[in-house]
Amino acid sequence: MEQVAAGITQLRIQRFVNLYFVETGEPGEWVLIDTGLPGSEGTIKKAAAKLFGDESKPKAIFLTHGHMDHAGSALALAEYWQVPIHAHALEMPFLTGRAVYPPADPTVGGSLAFVSRFFPPQSFQFDGHVQALAPDLHEPPFMPGWQCIHVPGHAPGQVAFFRHQDATLLGGDAFATTDHDSVPAILLGLPRISRAGTPITFDWQASWQSVAKLAHLRPNAIGCGHGPVMRGPHVADELLEFATHFPIPKHGRYVNHPARTDENGVEYLPPAPPDPLPAQLVLAGSVAALVASAVWWSSRRRVRTTQHEWAL
Fold first, then answer.
1. Residue 224: which CATH number?
2. In what order do the strands lie in the sheet with 85-88?
3. Are 86 and 212 within one domain?
């Protein structure tokens, strides 16, 4: 665990997913922001007990958005602690089983895009547990001194949380604090302001605007959904530089034509571009089969030759 700022602790799950324990200002009271991947509830409970005591529980769970690496353990924790889950209204279709997020784009490039071909459809059923947040809330429930800011692009109802008192930003996946397109950077936790979830970002112009909105807050401490905590006077300049030269990918399904969503889920999906990998795998498999056949026939021929020589 690592402290982001006073009363805010980052917990990293499986080396690349972050969540946050945020004290509310009242002694022993706190909220949980994001919940990691499915099956993370045990680790989160142990961390909460270490920070606040065995019998402590949050006032609420807040989700920056409903992707699996942020909402994966939300239901298990909400049922265990008997507390509500809060998320933006535009996330409700995906958190109540009425819709599935736009599919990942494996053609956008990068290591994460490669493995995104195997991501399952993302949707949850939190009916009876999840409540909708109004956008751009000053002082969301149980979080005095904080602002909840709507930052779409990566997810329709993604939000970030900003504490004006000390310029602390919890950015969700509006951006990342490590290079998300580099497996070594993710595993080593190398600090660098970067794009978050390239193959899962469905609206690049909205994502750019969201980063610019957060950059103009001039944060002094940053914790995101992925990557290490970044602190100090330099981080505001780095985020502003990143926003000024925001690196939209050169190609991909959602680069020129975003998916469109509304309160009911996905309204429009641009056509999927051809994915070269399946054809490449078929070609590689065919070549491997031919090589294996050639090796087999060659070995059979050598055996026959040896048997003939022994017979003579």
1. 3.60.15.10
2. 2-5, 8-13, 17-23, 30-33, 61-62, 85-88, 130-133
3. yes
